[in-house]
Design goal:
This protein is an alpha/beta fold and about 425 residues long. It contains 7 helices and 18 strands. The protein binds zinc ion (ZN). This is M6 family metalloprotease domain-containing protein. It comes from Streptomyces parvulus.
Length: about 425
């Protein structure tokens, strides 16, 4: 992994640790690989490189500079795990002499599955067939104590995580062929380290080509989950798994949307922003980035004039999902219809969400900003661990979003009979 530049402070909750990823390129990755945890080994036609587009999408294919570690740009750079088709996830449950596993290792696994694979199936409209596997069904005891690895919030890959990965590869290798998997989940015994209420240690090292090698492939895409994200509201059994789809989002190339200030930029509209509390989905931009939308479902509004669109609820399969309004080569607005269905449990004011995506802003620095149609209202939800203010951000029929500096107006017209929402995009 690359060291964090000194100007970059540790993010408040989790650090999306990024490995060495290639220089940004607009070329589609078509390399067919042999499987395994290594970058560039996505099966042909799968992975972030499988993002669907046509020539009409050109102006909307925004990208950031090479200094951006993990960008909102499309297509996603190479090195991450494939996000479409069958994705095999290796799950290893680990414990330590100073934090021996309590109960069965498979009970730890059951905190996250089958909920995580169901979450991805729902969010991806069935395009991500997530297969969690547990070739080792007991706790894997690490040779050092937890304290000796020096794992802290924001800890870099060197040297603690490298040692931990080397040790778990050595422990699992007799029973595991690492070439068979696209990503690794390390489900750490919850009694190792601090409570997630105090410090969230969970972290992902993604696209990390310098990771230790197992069975000839680097363990490049690995998520580590610690403790339990139990907010004390009694909903842990329902919602505690959501840290894993968040961490795996990094493995598929998605950046953190929360910032030093917390979830105020995007609120509960994307699991990369908030993964505590009630269930929520991903932004349509992320679904396009992950290859879960067809070219016909994403419209690029690049030309002057007025154009009408009918958006269908993002959570529903089929139909038009996202209108992208590019501003320059690095940024643009995205517009989508969010309703209370699918993974979107907390939507309390269904409507048209308008947000700005900036591919030149790094993970954790606010690459996405949601516009609030009801500023300073306090929001419409009182659900725990949901950023309330932005919960009523969506625009409803009769409301208009304006960005005069870019000559942009988005009018929300009436709904159609099937629950679709008509909008008009006007560019000067
Ligand atoms: Zn994260």
């Amino acid at each position: 992994m690359q060291a964090q530049p000194p100007s970059r402070r540790i993010r408040p909750r989790r650090l999306a640790a990024i490995g060495t990823v290639g220089v940004l390129t607009l070329a589609l990755s078509t390399s067919a690989g042999t499987g395994g945890l290594a970058p560039g080994t996505a099966p042909a036609g799968a992975g972030p490189g499988a993002l669907s587009r046509s020539s009409a999408h050109g102006p909307c294919m925004i990208s950031g500079g090479p200094e951006i570690q993990m960008s909102e740009g499309v297509p996603t750079t190479a090195g991450y795990a494939p996000s479409t088709g069958t994705v095999r996830a290796l799950n290893l449950m680990v414990d330590f002499s100073d934090a021996p596993g309590e109960g069965e290792a498979m009970d730890r696994f059951a905190e996250f599955f089958p909920k995580t694979e169901e979450w991805f199936r729902t969010s991806s409209y069935g395009r991500l067939d997530y297969r969690p596997e547990t070739p080792v069904r007991d706790w894997l005891r690490m040779p050092k104590s937890f304290a000796e690895y020096g794992i802290e919030r924001g800890a870099p890959f060197e040297p603690g995580y490298r040692k931990l990965v080397q040790d778990l590869v050595a422990a699992a290798d007799p029973e595991v062929d690492f070439r068979s998997y696209d990503l690794l989940n390390v489900l750490v015994t919850p009694n190792a380290g601090p409570s997630a209420l105090d410090t969230v240690l969970s972290v992902t090292f993604a696209g990390n080509a310098d990771a230790p090698v197992a069975d000839g492939v680097p363990v490049a895409n690995a998520s580590f989950v610690y403790s339990r994200q139990d907010d004390g509201s009694g909903s842990y059994d329902e919602t505690g798994y959501r840290v894993l789809p968040h961490e795996n989002g990094h493995v598929f190339g998605l950046p953190d949307l929360y910032t030093q200030e917390g979830g105020g930029a995007v609120g509960h509209w994307d699991i990369m922003s908030e993964d505590w509390g009630a269930n929520n989905d991903l932004l349509g931009w992320h679904k396009w980035k992950l290859g879960w939308l067809d070219p016909s479902q994403v419209h690029c509004a690049a030309t002057p004039g007025a154009t009408d669109y009918t958006l269908t609820p993002l959570a529903r399969r089929g139909g038009d999902k996202v209108v992208v309004v590019p501003l320059d080569g690095e940024s643009g607005y995205a517009v989508e219809l969010r309703t209370q269905e699918g993974n979107d449990e907390t939507v309390c004011r269904p409507g048209v969400l308008v947000y700005k995506v900036d591919a030149d802003v790094d993970t954790g620095m606010g690459p996405v900003k949601v516009y609030d149609s009801q500023r300073d209202s306090g929001g419409c939800t009182r659900g725990p661990n949901v950023h309330a203010e932005l919960s009523d951000a969506a625009f409803v029929a009769g409301e208009t979003f304006k960005d005069p500096s870019h000559g942009l107006t988005i009018q929300v017209s009436d709904a159609d009979r099937e629950g679709g929402q008509r909008i008009r995009v006007i560019r000067d």
